[in-house]
Amino acid sequence: MTGTADQTAAPTPATPRGALNRRGPFRAGERVQLTDERGRMNTVTLAADGEFHSHRGVLSHGELIGRPEGTVVENSAGFRYQALRPLLKDFVLSMPRGAAVVYPKDAGQIVTMADIFPGARVVEAGVGSGALSISLLRAVGDQGHLHSFERRAEFADIARGNVETMFGGPHPAWRITIGDLAQELGQYEQPGSVDRVVLDMLAPWECLDAVATALAPGGVVMCYVATVTQLSRTAEAMRADGRFTEPDASETMVRGWHVEGLAVRPDHRMVAHTGFLLSARRLADGSERLAPKRRASKSEYSQEDLDAWTPVALGERDVSDKKLRRAGREALGLAERAARATGPAGAGVSDPGAQDPASAGPGGAAAAAPVPGEEQEDRP
């Protein structure tokens, strides 16, 4: 199935998209993170008549609406909560999802190492739940352009809802197309017109020809892959293509530290391997890749190797259509509330329901139903 959901917009507002719902007092429709005295966090969506229930009592949302960020409030049983707007890293870990998200540590590396700059023309493949799309949109800004390709309409609905929740409405720089990047990129982007390409997909080597055609000389392609077999095959495909520089591979690990008085030590838990990053740059047409000479090594792939790169073999969970539809309804419902929270300033950019029916999930635009549950405990 192929379709296009263009995020058409009115003239770009003077205030950058997303700034309005990051400032000022709390408003109904906003997502707020409540942290108790033991450091446990819950994220709620404020409503005029809403309540946050726990085994330790009830907290009325009215205690927060109109109050400044950083307020400490007590619930009916006298337990205190610290209320703050979720940071991007918090939002990503608590938002509705249908696919695994790109963790903040990797998203930060992608934005930096791929040199995503304000005003850049960026293409993304594999939208998933929209975590990386949010980081890319923040980097390109309102004057940039992010064209995201996603094969599954259900994932596109979830991503759209999460993006609109974060920015308080449709982002003027975002366009999402339902389809295969390898087949459709050339229909939408002119040769040599794209500055950066980010591939978060199972088989990025299948898209390298389309990517090389669309990238401008000097442009960057960044691939996010989960396993060493994917990493190896993608790197060899880049070398074989001949239009890219020598690929550079890395992974990022983050280890927190416990700091309390003289008790200073590494945390017992850390976010270790989540994925590999592989990047290269587009050479000018007719130029030859310069690379250090190496001794010949095995570069052919057997059928057994190819079978190892199936989604099941890589440990991907089979997400049911019912779960995807539920996550899509939740994400789009949160987006509607976020748009209302920003008021007239956030409502004039675009109609959240004005999207291509071909790109909508089974529920279409009507899928933006009430959110199944307002309260959600943050999860890694």
Keywords, please?
380 residues; alpha+beta; Vcp-like ATPase, Chain A, domain 2; Rossmann fold; eight-stranded mixed beta sheet
Structural class: alpha+beta
What is the succession of H and E elements? EEEEEEEHHEHEHEHEHEHEEEEHHHE
User: Would you identify the regions where 5 or more consecutive residues have pLDDT less than 50?
Assistant: 7-12, 345-374
Helix content: 25-40%
Predict the CATH topology of the largest domain.
Rossmann fold
Strands in their spatial order, largest beta sheet: 1-10-9-8-11-12-16-13
Anisotropy-based shape: globular
Known CATH architecture of the largest domain: 3-Layer(aba) Sandwich
Q: Roughly what is the average pLDDT, rounded to an integer?
A: 83
Strand residue percentage:
15-25%
Number of domains: 2
Number of helical segments with 4 or more residues: 10
Number of strands: 17
Largest sheet: 8 strands, mixed
Note the gap between the termini.
33 Å
At the first level of CATH, the class of the largest domain is: Alpha Beta
Please tell me how large the radius of gyration is.
22 Å
CATH homologous superfamily classification of the largest domain: Vaccinia Virus protein VP39
Please tell me about this protein's structure:
The chain has helices spanning 88-94, 104-113, 131-140, 153-167, 181-188, 208-214, 228-241, 303-307, 321-341, 344-347, and strands spanning 3-6, 31-36, 41-45, 51-54, 57-60, 72-74, 80-84, 121-125, 145-150, 174-178, 194-199, 215-225, 248-250, 257-260, 263-266, 276-281, 376-377. It is of the alpha+beta class. It folds into two domains: 31-84, Vcp-like ATPase, Chain A, domain 2 (Roll), CATH 3.10.330; 91-307, Vaccinia Virus protein VP39 (Rossmann fold). The chain has an eight-stranded mixed beta sheet with strand order 1-10-9-8-11-12-16-13, with helices on both faces. A five-stranded antiparallel beta sheet has the order 6-7-2-3-17, with helices on one face. Helix 2 (104-113) packs parallel to helix 3, helix 4 packs parallel to helix 9 and helix 5 (181-188) runs parallel beside helix 6 (208-214). The longest helix has 21 residues, at 321-341. Residues 7-12 and 345-374 have low confidence and may be disordered. Residues 334-373 have a biased composition (Low complexity). Residues 93-259 form the tRNA (adenine(58)-N(1))-methyltransferase catalytic subunit TRM61 C-terminal domain. Keywords: Methyltransferase, S-adenosyl-L-methionine, Transferase, tRNA processing. Pfam families: GCD14, TrmI-like_N.
